[in-house]
Amino acid sequence: MKKRHVMFFMLAFFIIIPLLAACGNDSSEEGLAENGTTEETETDNNESNSEEGSDLEGTITMAGSTSVQPLSEELAAVFMELHPETRLEVSGGGSGAGVTAAQESAADFGAVSREIKDEETGITAEVIAIDGIAIIAHPDNSLTDIALEDVTKIFAGEITNWSEVGGDDQDIVVVSREDGSGTRGAFTDIVLGDEELVESALIHNSTGGVLEAVANDPNAIGYASTGAVSDSVVALAVDGFEPTLENIQSGDYAVSRPFNYAMNEDAELSELAQAFLDFVLSDEGQKVVEENGFIPVN
């Protein structure tokens, strides 16, 4: 009887112990699996947080052309939707100020609404859009089309009455941008050439100033970016071609110029500034250019 008890306990021992060991291993494996899952989850969270933390933030600075400014603000608005922690600070001063800002690294970008001159050294420039320069008049002006040659003569002071170009018998009031303005520089190159602007011209330091002056005087004539023209004035056809996107792109409308972002050639753009420039030249950025009445470059 005693031997039977001993054998029973020995048999029980050899059966139960392996079972307990197996259970222990399963628990350990489950624990390892749970730990592994936790570690993977923590890794994923860390990677997610890292990606969120790598998003762009900061301020892009720009100075220069008031013609380029509205387009830059529209581009920045879309860019800031993609990168909410960024913003754009823009100051005017004209294209000359934009060149200076780029040369002196006073801003990330200098906005220049004309061709870069040979003597403007120390910078590189990226064309972001093509703009037409509209010849504008008061909505009550009976004239709808004008020859480019006559525009030259009006702004040079050789033609002084609207009746000389098919309009009413009224003295012409010439309105122009200030010296140093990119719009005036491009207008001078394309329209005036070697001629001097008439001394009686009313000078304004912004696109808005020119638009307001022409809108308030039935006998005025001026010029402004096609993208800035509002219902307060009318854009005249030149040599039979209106300043439409199609006519500017084809070259039929002759009065057009580039919009440039100028940068210091010796200074590397910040990650944020480079990202903004890449966006501007991307399909999405060029769509914004076109939607605002300018000619895309890509």
TrEMBL record:
> Which membrane topology term applies here?
Lipid-anchor
A single Gene Ontology molecular function, please?
phosphate ion binding
Domain PBP per the UniProt entry, residue ranges: 51-284
Q: Which GO terms describe its cellular component?
A: plasma membrane
Quick one: where's region Disordered?
Answer: 27-57
First-listed, main subcellular location of the protein, grouped into a coarse class: membrane
Q: Which domain of life is it from?
A: Bacteria
PROSITE patterns for the chain: PROKAR_LIPOPROTEIN
Q: Which SUPFAM superfamilies does the record match to this protein?
A: Periplasmic binding protein-like II
Q: Which PANTHER family match?
A: PERIPLASMIC PHOSPHATE BINDING COMPONENT OF PHOSPHATE ABC TRANSPORTER, PHOSPHATE-BINDING PROTEIN PSTS
Which keywords, in A-to-Z order, does the entry hold? Cell membrane, Lipoprotein, Membrane, Palmitate, Phosphate transport, Signal, Transport
Family listed: Belongs to the PstS family.
Give the multimer and partner information: The complex is composed of two ATP-binding proteins (PstB), two transmembrane proteins (PstC and PstA) and a solute-binding protein (PstS).
Protein name per its UniProtKB record:
Phosphate-binding protein
Q: Where is the signal peptide?
A: 1-21
Q: Check the record and name the Pfam families matching this protein.
A: PBP_like_2
GO process annotations (BP): phosphate ion transport
Quote the subcellular location field of this record. Cell membrane
